Amino acid sequence: MANIPDIPVWREVGTTPVDQSNFDNQSTEHSEVLIVGGGPVGLTLALDLGLKGRKVIILNRLNFVAAGSKAICFAKRTLDIWDRLGVAEKMIEKGVIWNVGKVFCGDDAEPLYQFDMLPVKGQKNPGFINLQQYHAEEILIEAVNKLDNVDLRWGHEAVGLNARDDGAEISVRSGNESYAIDAQWVVACDGSRSPIREMLGLDFEGRVFEDNFLIADVKFKQQRPSERWFWFDPPFNRGQSALLHKQPDDVWRLDFQLGWDIDRDACTKPENVEPLVRGMLGDDVEFTEEWYSVYTFQCRRMKDFVHGRVIFAGDSAHLVSPFGARGCNGGVADADNLAWKLNAVLDDPTQKSLIASYNYEAVATADENIRNSTRSTDFMTPKSVLSRAFRDAVLELAKHNEFARPFVNSGRLSTAVAYPETVLNTPDTDVWTSGIAPGHPALDAPLSDGWLFDHFDGHFVLLIAGEAFDIEGLKTIDLDSLSCGDGLAEQRYGLEKGGAYLIRPDQYVAARWQNPSAAQVVKALNKAKGGCR
Amino acid sequence: MSNLKTKPNLGDPDGIYQMLIDLHAGRDEQDSMKVNAKLILALANHIGNQQVIAEAIAIAGAGAQE
Known about the structure:
A: 13 helices, B: 3 helices
């Protein structure tokens, strides 16, 4: 039986029994890392830390995998992260790959314009897949369950927090039983209403938007292309916008803007949803309801994501509008950024400044995501007469005037965010006319035996071309011996013989040189590891 | 003779769009219209080419939504 009513169930798991053998004589358990929340962000972080050999406990207050409509669009960057963790292939196999987006306006049956999300060619992972969040979670759960050092507990809820300088004690309730976990680090991946955030008396800053949207996930068997369709002011939803996305299992995501003054309960009644669905898909469409829900959204974040030994990641730290798929993808980016840093700090507590760099980099990512999703929202829902005039002018011009099309904003889709100013970077000292600058995400490229990213496997890596360096604890990847001969990898990095790139465990560029000494590389490595030594 | 550029020509269209919207935040309609007029005049002066401006005027006036 599901332990929490009113949340739709995808799969019953059952409550994990409390294991008293873990307790010391105070009914307290000890763990290196405690993750609160078993959604995609918490699971990704647990998997990453677990694969690095860390002892991790994850608490999921639900004793089931929730169904319903949540994240569905997973970006290339997220797939790269999941690929590093060995789960991307299953996601892509199950998901719907899409590249084309079409934007419609008014009564016109022809798109105003269309765009292609196809990424830079010659990379392992596609630009986007659509996949129900519960499918993504199931794949992550399966991978986490294979690790003995990761303890995923179902139906265990964090109900109290006592933070100290060197850790935190979390009170846990499961059914009628209570116990405590003393962890060196607590990561709150517990969603937008984060109980951990409330326990610390912290809040969000930013904007709440006065608008409502209806999500109708419906099942039907109509042949339609795997494309993202977006409408401004369609005949079936006058004066508002609408969005259509394909998901696996013949499920489609329909999204209708509703406006501010609405009766939320009435909007999800089947008799009120049906005309919208038929308006979009045609009168004759035979469909069944998967999940209807009305949501409103905020573009807000916490001021800081790190509070002593308690760290926030994902929706608990930042919220965006859904246009642009920046919510879950932004959260997975947090997990990716945090995992290697937490691992390093657990190995060597003097590297604690890495955690401060998580705060800086994750806040920068959240700001970029909030900026983009706020702009999209302002375009879709103009807040003033003049704002609407500009918006309508763009839409009128866009049909016949190419110059106006870049202004049309139906969502700017999630891509990896750069941190050109992060303290972990070593700034360029050479003059570069190509390649990837420090603080930017590395680029994948085809090699003779697979993909470049297969070699960026969660450790620091030195990417070189011919000229070897022998640096303790630093893996070297020589493009000269791996290249598939088309020179694509060398080109993307602007790498010539003697040059080198220092790549972080999260596949970001930390430093690059055209002809470095070993001492320069060692210095940059120490800097990227958060040290000033 | 130069012509109006009709291909996309901006590196950061979203940033420019936001600057335009921000310009009007908190203004009433009449004030906004005047601010827009000033902006057009400033840009027209910068362009400094009557032919180009005439082409832009033609596009802007090309009528309501079809």
